[in-house]
Amino acid sequence: MEPAPITVKYCSECGQPWPVEELARFGDRLICANCKIAYAQKLREGVASAATLIYAGFWIRFAAVLLDGIILFVAGVVVQLLFAPMTRSGRMDLMLMALGFEYLIGMIIGATYEGLFVSRLGATPGKMALDLKVVRPDGGPISLGRAVGRYFAKIVSGIILMIGYIMAGFDSEKRALHDMMCDTRVIKVSKPPL
Ligand SMILES: [Zn+2]
To answer: What DSSP line would sit under 63-118, residue for residue?
Structure first.
């Protein structure tokens, strides 16, 4: 009897040829025994290699921005209540001062929210709710400094009729202007198929 021919396929991570039965299937990728542990670890962290990043499109990102907007709007209302005695005083100097404080505190809250959530957990609550994550081009995590910088870059994206945001709908890697400025990408988190 003739031995069955061995089918050779290539590992998606290291590119080495292996008999197909020695490769494990992860979604549409084949992974060899040598790469399996490291690859499974990357999947658990929601970080697959750059070749497998699934960029999140404009509309799902828009939905995430709306969710975060609701949370920050509520925070803004609380801040306005704190300054209500000043804004209702009828004195122009106090009203202008209250407006300035509200603007400044709103910015500090926004930068802290964006900076801490994105650097610690990879996403704001709005993005987490929709399984989105902010990463570097290689899929790696975002530092606190970059996350805070990205908050201010978003203000630039929003200045002219949100054009900086809308750009995400036209870029091949779905980058908004603030992603281009900070060298970040927004991806869909891949759930480990284990
Ligand atoms: Zn391999």
So the answer is: HHHHHHHHHHHHHHHHHHHHTHHHHTS--HHHHHHHHHHHHHHHHHHHHHHHHHHH
Q: What is the pTM of this model?
A: 0.70
Q: Give burial (CB, 10 Å; 0-12/13-18/19+) of 93.
A: exposed
The token duo for 130 is: 């929709």
Give residue 22 CA to ligand 1 midpoint distance, Å. Answer: 11
d(CA 8, CA 29): 14
Distance 33 CA to ligand 1 centre (A): 7
In whole angstroms, give the CA distance from residue 40 to residue 46.
10
Q: Which residues contact 57 (CB under 8 A, 6 or more apart)?
A: 168, 169, 174
pLDDT in tens, 175-184: 999 999 999 9
- What residues flank ion ligand 1 with Cβ within 5 A? 11, 13-14, 32, 35
